[in-house]
Every structure is written in structure tokens, then in C-alpha cells.
Design brief:
single chain; mainly beta; six-stranded mixed sheet; four-stranded antiparallel sheet; elongated
């Protein structure tokens, strides 16, 4: 394995990583950014209680990842950062607070503040698109009728008064004079276009001369205000002035998600986050989460901590990225969380939570069934420590990709770091990635530093779709009949035909590669198993072997990121839909952790499931077969019981429905953790 691949596949706490004392809060995507510098405070090491299972069980779906190698042709900027992208034809438009550009590292810098364009096929900076703005650009939209809509903190464009909002000719940068959109001189932080509606968010009290607090909706073609959209976010947290920081509209156009510094929306209590129904006359939905009420590290520093919001492609869920430092589990601080759009009522809890260990997430993008996130974080899957790598932490330096089903990282790790030969005056690492945006040809990124993918990319760049890869979900066998496999001696497996209710005649084969084996679970064409290995930190590790129904192949370690975990404690386990379900010694419960097959990463948080009537402490060996848990026990008896994880918080297993499949016999006793089901 070459050095670059090694560094990307092994835990970061085995080498040094940069540590920053300054956090930049930004709501940047291709739509917006707003900057503020914050000093992070450090919390004590976090204690993680066993969590309660959520009722929604998302299923992993096929996905496509962009390449980890950034394109070499994108230009460079300096001073400030890139905050927004848009595309019109082959031209990519970049907005931000930068002041200078250059084509390559060898070229001289030219003055081109706040907004420029370049050809996406060649990277050549446009010499005809030359608008002149007197303030930073936070948001860009490719508007209808061949326009480029720009939002930010500027007051004048091309020498003409245009406060914070303007439509430009994308060929020349000239103002589209007939476009009416204006704010009152506050700040436009975010823009979203859906159909011909342009949603505007920021720190303002007026749009087009009409009173609007932080939110408004315009006709995207004309810039005219929509009088039917009367949604106002008011009363800032901790006696500060209110504003909206980030917005997104669901792809079906039915729901607007709003995040920022407010405590009321249309006089209804909504702290930092709210949903708005857009199917008729817009109105605030009956949805709120108290996980954004409590302060994080410091109310004076982190006035609000919702940083970015993004809907999934089917509109059924959305994700929120936050900053804030310490404060969880009372609050969702420094975390990526998923919510279900259709849920209603107060007290909404996240479907899943991915904590960074008190590092900021500044931007989120969802594309091709992947959630991308950027910031100054150093790890994901890190709820067990503060400001360092805890048990389960997975190295992800400033940019990452996770699966929508569980929030677990996938095996995509370009790292926000520079090369060994960065140009003079550049910074390999900075406090913020204000924007991630999926264009037609890849994932564009804007940041306030110059290193990405161990290369020089001054303030901006793009991970191309070309050179990426697909993720095909792997799962447990779905057939109703097949074979149960049971370890009956060291290096030996007994194969028993099983049709879901009855057992056939067993046969036994030597399996010399399957020694020191404990709990085992089948996934696709392989088995994962607890393997006793003396030189490991815990004395055992999760190994993987290919299995064709006849031979267990040679094993390899699933992932070095799992070396904190002792799988020898498992008394049975099976995999299903992104989760490893298991029982463990010394406990009388059914548990699960997320387990991401693309990377073989084990979740850092243990969840308990509500059950009744089964003595889980006596279970020895488990498998999932056609909606039932088939399990052995210390008495050697094999049983099955219906299993429905979506029934939570009601019981997912009721022992009253258990069926005895086979008693223990002198020839075969079902009392070992090493049991699994396979069709072959």
C-alpha cells in the first residue's frame, strides 16, 4: 500500500493533526454564507449513556461518490474565502470575501474581489464577466431567463446602489435593470430557488420595501415580492438581534427548512430551527426540537449553532450541521443530525446523530445518496471524547462523506490538507469550509485555506464525478431458507439445512481459517466474525472472510478504526440494514450499533432495543432469517422469534411468540456464539 493510501485508511490519532483555537461559523452552501469568528471552549470527556432506539429505520441505498482527487485545473483565490457557486452553461461562478485570483500557482495575482467566473472545462478565468461589487458575496443562483442572482453584504454594484441583492448578466456582469429584488441594507445570507420562487434569508427587516423579518419570497424572473409569503423569524437568542442563517426547500417543493438565530417564527416558539408548509399559503408547521434550545459551550460566543440544512433527494428527510462546542446530550452541538420531514409535534429527536468530538461543521451537501460535510472537524463517529479522538473516532480532516441511512462515514477521505510543497504564503488548514455544492461535474468546495486532498487549491476547488465510485449496499441474506452454520469445534463448522421452521441433516467440514472465532454474521458474500488475536489492543478484533458456502477464506482485519472494541464479548450477532444487532456477556438486553460496510466502521454508540420475554443473557449465537431472530442458548436449544425493529419504542421482540426449532442433542447443541445463516 503506498503512503498516501495508508494515511487515508488508518486512524488519525496515530499521527499528528492540526488543532485550531478559532472556529468560523458559516452557513455556506452554494446559496449562502455569513461569517463570524468564535473561540472554542473545551468540555470534559463526554459520558455516553446507552441510547433509546429511534422508530425510523432507514435502509442503505445505492450511492455514487465523487473522486477524492481534486481537479487540477481550477483557479486559486486568496484573502478571505469562497462562499458560493453557481453554474450557467460551462461557466462556473464563484462568490466570497476573497480579493485576488490567479490561474495557477506560478501565475501572478490579479485583483478580482468578491465575484468571478471561470470555464469549468479548462479552468480559465473569464475576462468578460467583470462586475464590480463593494462587499462580499454570500449566495449565488443561476436564475431564470439567463440571469445570475447574487446575495451578500454589498451596497453598490457597478457603481449603482443595489443593497445585498442583484441580478446580473452572466456574460458581462452588467446589472439586469428590470429585476426588482432589494433588501434594506442588512445582509442576505442564503438564497434557494425552487420553480420560479426565490427564497431569501438573512439579517434584514425589509424586502422590496415590505416588512419581512429574516425571510422572504420573490418572483425569480422579476424580483417582485410575493405578498402571500408572510413568515417572520424574530427574537434572537441571548438578547441578540435575530436573523436567518440557512434555508433549504425540499425537492418536492412542499417544505421550507429554516435555521438561525431566532426563538419565534410567526410568534410560535421555534428555537433555531423551523419547518414551513409551502403546499398552499405558507404557514409554520407543527414541528420543533428542544435539542436546539439549550446553549452549547458559550452563549456569548455561539449565539446559535445551527449552521446548515439540506434535504434528501426524496424530500422525506433533512440533515442539520452544527457548531457550538460542548453541550450535548442536552443539545445537538458540534454534530450532524438527521430528521424526518413528515414528523410532527414538539420534542422532535434526530433519527441519528454523528458527533465530531467538539469540532465545527460549517457546510452540508446532499447528492447521489451521499451526505457531504465540511468544517474544521478532525474526526467523525466521536461521541466519547472532547477535543481528541475517543473510542470509535474515525479520522476525517475537514471534509467527509456519510451515508444517509445511519450517518456513519463511508470510505471517502481526501483530507483537507496541503502538499509538502505548498506555495509561499498559503495555509494548508483553516477554520471553515463555507460551501459544498454539487455541480454538474462534481462537488465544488470553498474554504478559507489552501490545502485539499494533499494538494494546493487556493480557497476553492472541485472533486470531480469522474474517477469516483459507486456504493452498492450489502446486506444479510433475504431468503427464507438456506443453511445454519454452527461452530462445533475449533476450526470446524457444521452446516444444517434450514427452511425457516425445520432443520435438515447436518454435515461437518474442517475450516482451518476459522479459528479463535466468536460471534459471526453473514453479509453478502462474506462473514464478519470475532477473532481472538493476542497482539490486538483488546485481545480480539472484527475480521472478514469471504465465504462461498463451502470454505471460509483467509481473514483480514475489518478496519483499524475498530481496534478499541472487544468483539469477544459478543454472545451472538447479526447484521441488517446498516446495523449490527447483538447480545453481549454480562448484560440481559438486545443491542445494536451502526456498522458501515463501506469501510467496515463500527458505530461508537450502543443502542438498546425494547423487548420482553427473552432472556438475552442466555443467548448464544444469532442469525436473522426472513424477519425472525434465530438464536441458540446456554441450554443448547434453538429458537426463533419475530423481530421488527421499526416497532420501537414499542417492543421489537416478544418472547411469547418464540418457537422452539430444535432441542439440544448429544450430536448438536446450539450453545456457541459462532452461528450464522447463509443461503449457500
Amino acid at each position: 500500500m503506498d503512503e498516501r493510501r495508508y494515511r487515508r485508511s488508518h486512524p488519525s490519532w496515530r499521527r499528528s493533526v492540526p488543532k485550531l483555537s478559532l472556529l468560523r461559523r458559516s452557513a455556506g452552501r452554494h446559496r449562502a454564507w455569513a461569517g463570524a469568528v468564535a473561540v472554542a471552549t473545551v468540555a470534559a470527556v463526554l459520558a455516553v449513556p446507552t441510547a433509546t432506539s429511534a422508530a425510523v429505520v432507514p435502509v442503505p441505498e445505492p450511492a455514487t461518490l465523487v473522486s477524492t482527487n481534486p481537479a487540477d485545473t481550477t483557479p486559486h483565490a486568496r484573502n478571505g474565502e469562497s462562499r458560493a457557486f453557481a453554474q450557467v452553461g460551462d461557466m462556473v461562478y464563484v462568490g466570497g470575501s476573497f480579493t485576488q485570483l490567479r490561474q495557477t500557482a506560478a501565475d501572478p495575482w490579479i485583483s478580482r474581489p468578491y465575484l468571478f467566473a471561470y470555464d469549468r472545462t479548462t479552468g480559465t478565468i473569464s475576462t468578460t464577466f467583470l462586475p464590480v461589487l463593494d462587499g462580499a458575496v454570500n449566495a449565488l443562483i443561476a436564475g431564470p431567463g439567463g440571469t445570475l442572482i447574487v446575495g451578500g453584504v454589498f451596497k453598490n454594484v457597478n457603481g449603482v446602489s443595489r443593497k445585498n441583492l442583484v441580478a446580473l448578466d452572466p456574460a458581462t456582469g452588467a446589472i439586469v435593470d428590470g429585476w426588482e429584488g432589494r433588501s434594506d441594507g442588512g445582509t442576505v445570507r442564503d438564497l434557494v430557488l425552487h420553480g420560479n420562487w426565490l427564497y431569501v434569508a438573512g439579517a434584514f427587516n425589509w424586502l422590496n420595501g415590505t416588512a419581512h423579518a429574516g425571510l422572504g419570497r420573490l418572483n425569480a424572473t422579476t424580483g417582485a415580492i410575493d405578498p402571500t409569503f408572510d413568515i417572520n423569524a424574530t427574537v434572537g437568542r441571548h438578547t441578540t438581534t435575530s436573523y436567518v442563517w440557512t434555508i433549504d426547500v425540499s425537492p418536492d417543493g412542499a417544505t421550507l427548512a429554516v435555521g438561525g438565530n431566532f426563538t419565534f417564527v410567526n410568534d410560535l416558539p421555534r428555537n433555531q430551527i423551523a419547518l414551513v408548509d409551502l403546499t398552499g399559503t405558507p404557514e409554520v408547521l407543527d414541528w420543533s426540537s428542544e435539542k436546539f434550545v439549550a446553549p452549547c459551550a458559550s452563549p456569548a460566543t455561539f449565539v446559535h449553532y445551527v449552521q446548515d440544512i439540506r434535504f434528501g433527494a426524496d424530500s422525506s428527510w433533512f440533515v442539520v450541521g452544527t457548531n457550538g462546542g460542548s453541550g450535548w446530550p442536552a443539545a445537538y452541538c458540534d454534530a450532524l443530525v438527521r430528521f424526518e420531514t413528515a414528523a410532527r409535534g414538539p420534542g422532535q429527536l434526530a433519527t441519528w446523530i454523528n458527533f465530531t468530538g467538539n469540532d465545527t461543521i460549517t457546510s452540508v451537501e446532499v447528492a447521489d445518496n451521499v451526505i457531504y460535510l465540511g468544517g474544521h472537524f478532525r474526526w467523525l463517529n466521536n461521541p466519547n471524547a472532547s477535543d481528541k479522538a475517543g473510542k470509535g473516532a474515525i479520522d476525517r480532516l475537514g471534509v467527509a462523506a456519510v451515508t444517509p441511512a445511519t450517518g456513519m462515514p463511508v470510505n471517502w477521505n481526501p483530507r483537507r490538507s496541503g502538499s509538502a510543497s505548498m506555495p509561499a504564503g498559503t495555509a494548508a488548514w483553516g477554520s471553515s469550509v463555507p460551501v459544498l455544492w454539487r455541480g454538474t461535474d462534481g462537488l465544488y468546495f470553498g474554504h478559507n485555506s489552501d490545502g485539499m486532498g494533499e494538494e494546493y487549491h487556493g480557497r476553492l476547488g472541485m472533486f470531480p464525478l469522474a474517477g469516483g465510485r459507486s456504493i452498492t449496499p450489502k446486506n444479510a441474506p433475504t431468503a427464507a431458507s438456506g443453511h445454519l452454520y454452527l461452530k462445533t469445534a475449533e476450526g470446524e463448522l457444521t452446516k444444517v439445512p434450514f427452511d425457516g421452521t425445520a432443520l435438515g441433516t447436518p454435515t461437518t467440514d474442517a475450516q482451518p481459517a476459522y479459528t479463535g472465532a466468536g460471534a459471526t454474521w453473514r453479509v453478502d458474500d462474506r462473514i464478519y466474525w470475532s477473532h481472538l488475536v493476542a497482539e490486538t489492543p483488546t485481545g480480539s478484533r472484527i475480521d472478514v472472510s469471504l465465504f462461498n458456502g463451502t470454505t471460509v477464506g483467509g481473514s483480514w482485519e475489518a478496519s483499524g478504526y475498530n481496534d478499541w472494541y472487544n468483539p469477544a464479548l459478543l454472545t451472538g450477532g447479526f447484521y441488517l440494514d446498516g446495523r449490527l444487532y447483538y447480545t453481549r456477556s454480562g448484560a440481559n438486553g438486545l443491542y445494536y450499533r451502526y456498522f458501515e460496510i463501506d469501510g467496515n466502521y463500527l458505530g461508537a454508540t450502543e443502542f438498546s432495543l425494547p423487548t420482553t420475554g427473552v432472556t438475552w443473557s442466555a443467548v448464544r449465537g444469532m442469525a436473522w432469517v426472513d424477519g425472525k431472530i434465530v438464536y441458540g442458548a446456554t441450554d443448547g436449544t434453538l429458537r426463533s422469534v419475530p423481530f421488527d425493529p421499526t416497532a420501537a419504542p414499542s417492543v421489537v421482540v416478544d418472547g411469547a411468540d418464540a418457537t422452539v426449532l430444535a432441542p439440544a442433542t448429544p450430536a448438536l447443541t446450539w450453545s456457541t456464539p459462532s452461528m450464522f445463516f447463509s443461503v449457500q
